[in-house]
Specification:
This protein is an alpha/beta fold. 33% of the residues lie in helices and 17% in strands. The radius of gyration is 28 Å and the shape is globular.
Amino acid sequence: MNRFFCLTIVMMLLAGYSLAQQESPDIPISDEKIVLNGQKFYLHKVKQGQTMYSICKAYNVKEKELLVHNPDLSRGLKTGSTIKIPVRPLKSAEEMQPEIDTSDYHVIKIRRKHTLYSLSKRYDVTIQEIYDANPGLETNDLKRNDTVIIPKHALQQEKVDFTDPEFSRDTSEYVYHTIKKGETLYRIGEKYNVKLKHITSANPDLKNRDIWVGEVIRIPREKIRYVVTFPKLNDSVQALVRLDTSSVYDTRPDSFVLDDSLLQVIDTLEPSWIEEMNVLLMLPFNVEANIERIKEKEKDDKQPGLYPYTESMVRMYEGVLLGLEHLDSLEGKINLTVRDTRGSIEETKTILNDLDEPPDLIIGPIGKSNIETALNYADTNDVNVFTFVDPEAHAMFMHKSLISVQPNLQIQWFFIAEYLIEHNYPVVIVHDGTQSTVAYADEIKFSIIDYFSAHGQPGYDNIATIAYSREQKDAVKNSLRAKDTTFVISASSEKIFVTGLMNTLYQCEEKEVILLGNEQWLDQNYVEMEEYKKLRFSYVSPVYINYADSSNHSMIQQFREYFLDEPGKYAFMGYDATLIFPLILKYGHNLKPALESSGKIEGHSMTLKFPYKGESMPLVNTALKLIRLQEDYRFAVEYEK
């Protein structure tokens, strides 16, 4: 699977991170305890090198227990933070290691690539059988160096010995590959650019066992896809910096099959099939700068780690690759070119100026100035740019080449107004008294009122705008209705303002509040999650991942198998970006009316709906969700359009 080589280059940047992980030191049990609601808790201060796994091991608790009592851990464990740990009786080493009858079980020490799914396939057992053999095991308990037992099955398939001189090899249909030391089926598939399922189909016995050095397996010739030669890595770390290479995905079946259940394309347009589609993916990986940081960190552990956004951008790239893997039914070729913008406007300009010809689609870049640069190029060269635009960047929504997943602010406030019409909540918009937030609060208010008027709700006077400061809290308290739920909108995301406002609202225990804020607040640790829950914190976004959805389970599992990692939001977004590729191949430059006529495109994390307003206007997604924190500290969709 040479198409994943670019990913390997990026992921090797993280080698300093992963190789630096060592066995966690013994963790002393905290002497500090508290009692909350009748339950005892340790107060544990997280130190450098400690992990969720090592802390749970030391205190004899499950990770899910930590998440229940410390919901903000879902965004990662932070050195220096203090977490609550339920008091549990501590087990001895002997209690933790029961005796195992190895005559009936395989005894497996968990490695980084292991998942319950991969173990079940490797040993031909069901996941439930693994659970049954390991009482108390849960998916998030599967950690490196853990020991699990796998029931042995007597059933084994007969192995075909292609090394036997009497065996006639069919070289017209197969390539015969001799296994070398250190090779895996994944690497062999990568070498020949063949999917694993096609290798195991040609070698059925491999479904239930490992390969071994010296054996010969068949590679079906017809399944070998377009092979790309990439620059080889050498001993110099500088070999890691080049992402400027193209991966080609040749997806030509005997006949074209478009998944109408997914895309729901209304064929009112004349198709203009194109055989080859060029996609330029521009993201700020900051490869060279990260390599320098890794070098410095090797010298001094106190040096900062990877640059912000690097890991998120790698995940988005991985999501795009996985999305391409699922486009086998397309008649045509997708050429993916990946460029590292380094977060620089000059680098973005250089990348675009060095193109031999304009691509059919640009995905990215990130950052207002870089997006503006790409849009200027795209407007001139009749190219579409698929990206997430800051909704406050009004000027960007004037570019005809823009396809924005994120709608502008007016669309978002119309969406909120539609929600308020259904619920008839009194509304309080709170600002900090500065000129900019006063103007923004008025913009919010009049956008909502305009929507009310346009939809038969004229004269709606249930909206108040209030200035808040720590010295003047009463105005906000007095604005809350005693018997009604008040819908409070914050016109500022400044940290001190948000912290004070939330604390004030939290203290109004007798009043019911729904607080509408910004998703980014959650990344800044403004306040305790208990306050977010009490205030029924909500935000508007086109992106929401439903982890209870079985189709998402499948995507997550495939991501783990390919990349040995968890996908996260950015991987889902990258995957969903590929859902418009079939329309580009089918309609070419008629993409805009094709997107409009397709209705809703349902992705794993996003619904995409683009009303078409003409070739000179951008396409802006109008499919939004109001997402709210629930009693169990999980976010769920409260309302969607």
